[in-house]
Amino acid sequence: MSDQHEQWLARWREGRIGFHLAEPHPRLVEYWSCLGLAQGSRILVPLCGKTPDMRWLAAQGHEVIGVELATEALEAFVAESDQPAAHDNDTRFERWQQGAITLYGGDFFHFRPALAGELAGFHDRAALVALPPSTRQRYALHLAHLLPPGAAGLLISLTHAAGPAEGPPYSVDEHEIRRLFDANFRCEWLRSDEDARGQGMREHLWRLVRRGPGAAEA
Ligand SMILES: C[S@@+](CC[C@H](N)C(=O)[O-])C[C@H]1O[C@@H](n2cnc3c(N)ncnc32)[C@H](O)[C@@H]1O
């Protein structure tokens, strides 16, 4: 296991999860419908933690697939609901199924299309910005590998003044978003706001649509 992985597991163990929000992210609630994704369609939440965004997406009628390194986070997520849950670890990933939500415990970079199934979209809040500079291009390529042409998602990134090497969360500006994603996604900036945690951080909301044959080019 890498040092970065150890650091995330230690954060969860020690409860250093200041990024966690008890309520669904306001930008998700406000902007999700602009993606126009059908009820019943499957949504990927990479590096999901125990975000209630997943329950909100399920309540909109989606099947939700969450992927998270810290199984402790996924256990906590499952325990927050009375809904029965099934658990197995047949694959390289530990898996929980609770209603329309399926959670995979393991490294996102080992998550394969065969497990993801036919995805229609994704929701990245604080996933890209959790990763150091050297890993972010790999993340953008892996996301593209998992999503078919036309799949759409929201990406909520962050900038701060502490410098590009300081994180997590890392500061990822517009130039970098376009450099990482433009080859495989149509990227549209939607808005920027102060991050609720203050500390001079700003959150930036993007809509991304996977490019490729059959995907509408607006
Ligand atoms: C900043 S948190 C964001 C969690 C969630 N998206 C939210 O909004 O609360 C980043 C999460 O990514 C997880 N993580 C880091 N590297 C990962 C990897 N390679 N595979 C899966 N999860 C990872 C961490 O354990 C942590 O829970």
UniProtKB/TrEMBL annotation:
PANTHER family: THIOPURINE S-METHYLTRANSFERASE (PTHR10259:SF11)
Assigned GO CC terms: cytoplasm
Subcellular location: Cytoplasm
Family stated for the protein in its record: Belongs to the class I-like SAM-binding methyltransferase superfamily. TPMT family.
A Pfam short name: TPMT
Residues bound to S-adenosyl-L-methionine: W12, L47, E68, R125
Alphabetically ordered keywords of this record: Cytoplasm, Methyltransferase, S-adenosyl-L-methionine, Transferase
Gene: tpm
Highest taxon, organism lineage: Bacteria
Molecular functions per Gene Ontology: thiopurine S-methyltransferase activity
Reaction equations catalysed: S-adenosyl-L-methionine + a thiopurine = S-adenosyl-L-homocysteine + a thiopurine S-methylether
Keyword Disulfide bond: no
UniProt enzyme class: transferase
Secreted in keyword set: no
Protein name as catalogued: Thiopurine S-methyltransferase
Enzyme Commission identifier(s): 2.1.1.67
Taxonomic path: Bacteria, Pseudomonadati, Pseudomonadota, Gammaproteobacteria, Oceanospirillales
InterPro entries given in the database record: SAM-dependent_MTases_sf (IPR029063), Thiopurine_S-MeTrfase (IPR025835), TPMT (IPR008854)
GO biological process: methylation
Native organism: Kushneria sinocarnis
